[in-house]
Amino acid sequence: TAAVTVNGGSPTISANVISLQNTQTGIQVNSGNPSIVSNFVTGGTYGIYTAGPNTYVANNNITNCFSGIYAVAQSVVVQNIIMNNINDAVVSNCSTSIIQSNVLANNKVGISRDATILNNTIANNNYGLWGQTNASTINYNNINSAVENVHLTEKQTNVQATNNWW
């Protein structure tokens, strides 16, 4: 179950405080093109789960979830603070998603899977980046993780990662 569910349209979901139980999702987008802006989400399975084709996620604070943001479809994830989640700060299942200018700290993984990853601070996670392929672009990030900064899981993967601070 989700505290807020979007099944279509282009709503703006902003300035909410969402405190979740273990199996709940904060904001779930099944379809539509919502803007999810300036919310505080804590606890639960996913802070934000989006399968919507063009979800804009900005200036949110997401903490103490299993995963902060899980983006199945193309999303823009900018200027969020995503900390202290059990697993991932951000999971992106769409290589055309943009993950930019976020603070991702104290999670198991900063960013999992493919996206354009730009200008993020990815710090104090066990793994900074996990499972990227040659579909990812990784530029201008500050990546400082406890175990590995980048963990590639595919054979013969050439990831474009330049101008990062390691």
Question: Keywords for this structure?
Answer:
mainly beta; 0% helix; 166 residues
What do these coordinates show?
There is one protein chain. The protein has 166 residues and is mostly beta strands. 0% of the residues lie in helices and 53% in strands. The chain contains no helices and 23 strands. It has strands at residues 2-7, 12-14, 17-19, 25-31, 35-37, 40-42, 46-50, 55-58, 61-63, 67-71, 75-78, 81-83, 88-92, 98-100, 103-105, 109-113, 116-118, 121-123, 127-130, 137-139, 142-144, 148-151, 160-162. Strands 1-4-7-10-13-16-19-22 form an eight-stranded parallel sheet, with no helix packed on it. Strands 2-5-8-11-14-17-20-23 form an eight-stranded parallel sheet, with no helix packed on it. A seven-stranded parallel sheet has the order 3-6-9-12-15-18-21, with no helix packed on it. It is globular, with a radius of gyration of 15 Å. The relative contact order is 0.11. The model has no long low-confidence stretch (mean pLDDT 95).
Task: List strands and helices in order, with pairings.
Blueprint: E1 2-7, E2 12-14, E3 17-19, E4 25-31, E5 35-37, E6 40-42, E7 46-50, E8 55-58, E9 61-63, E10 67-71, E11 75-78, E12 81-83, E13 88-92, E14 98-100, E15 103-105, E16 109-113, E17 116-118, E18 121-123, E19 127-130, E20 137-139, E21 142-144, E22 148-151, E23 160-162
Parallel strand pairs: 1-4, 2-5, 3-6, 4-7, 5-8, 6-9, 7-10, 8-11, 9-12, 10-13, 11-14, 12-15, 13-16, 14-17, 15-18, 16-19, 17-20, 18-21, 19-22, 20-23
